[in-house]
Amino acid sequence: MKKHNIFYVLSLLMLSGCGVQLQSVVDPHLSTSYKRPLIVIPFESGRTVTFSNSLKRHLEDVFSQNQQEVDVLLISADRRDELALNVEDDRDKKIANAIVEGGKDLVIFFKPEQLEYYNGTLQTASYQLIGIDTGTNREVWKANYSSSGSFGPSIFARASAEKIFKQLLDDNIIKPTSAGTP
After folding, report:
1. pTM, whole model, 2 decimals?
2. Which one, 78, 117, 136, 140, has the greatest CB density within 10 A?
3. Cβ neighbour number for residue 58 with a 10 Å cutoff
4. Which residues on neighbouring strands pair with residue 138, listed in sequence order?
5. What per-residue confidence (pLDDT) applies to 88?
6. Beta strands of the chain (E only): which ranges?
7. How many domains, the chain?
């Protein structure tokens, strides 16, 4: 019985140790929802890669659990300080290929605003999320998103994925399936 109580207390502490805030705005002229979104998340090797990978996995999981299609693309945001001629940036090519090959109708870019670390571990992540219609190249959705957690990035990545998915539904950017929503 004591093990069960300890597990319950630890679960409550972990859930209370993370917070996700999200405010969004939608194009008032938007008349459609999207069926094939692509989410692009930048990461820095050694710094945000753990959070980015966890967020990717949790986004894919929450979309899948709700019978929604999504592709999540992680893109290195590491700076390239080398001085070289004729060097192409493969990030743009990867995004363009994912849009074309996947028939994506919406791209949601995560733009890092503020990342805070404590003892080398990401504690707070603030992003601006920008949804762009691939047919018109116009912004149709934008959100300011902030997530924090004292138990590491993996915990608040799950809460972030659930909050982002719910906001996309609430804003009619994506439609709920007949099987239900979270």
Report:
1. 0.81
2. 140
3. 21
4. 133
5. 65
6. 18-26, 37-43, 71-76, 106-118, 121-133, 138-149
7. 1
Report residues of the chain scoring pLDDT below 70: 1-18, 79-88, 117-121, 149-154, 178-182
Give the dihedral sign, CA 59/64/70/71.
Answer: positive
CATH number for position 133: 3.40.50
- Residue 182 inside a domain? The answer is no
User: CB of 34 within 8 A of CB of 106?
Assistant: yes
Q: CB atoms < 10 A from the CB of 108, how many?
A: 24
Q: Position of tokens 């047919």?
A: 135
Q: Give the E-state strand segments of 27-157 in sequence order.
A: 37-43, 71-76, 106-118, 121-133, 138-149
Q: Tell me if residue 141 falls in helix, strand or coil.
A: strand
Q: How far is CA 177 from CA 50, 96, 151, in A?
A: 31, 28, 33
- Tokens linked to 15: 């859930």
Q: What pLDDT does residue 74 have?
A: 95
What residues contact 125, with CB distance under 8 A and at least 6 apart?
Answer: 48, 51, 112, 114, 115, 116, 146, 147, 148, 153, 156, 160
With 0-12 / 13-18 / 19 or more C-beta atoms within 10 angstroms meaning exposed / middle / buried, residue 20 is buried
**Domain with 68 in it:** 18-78+89-170
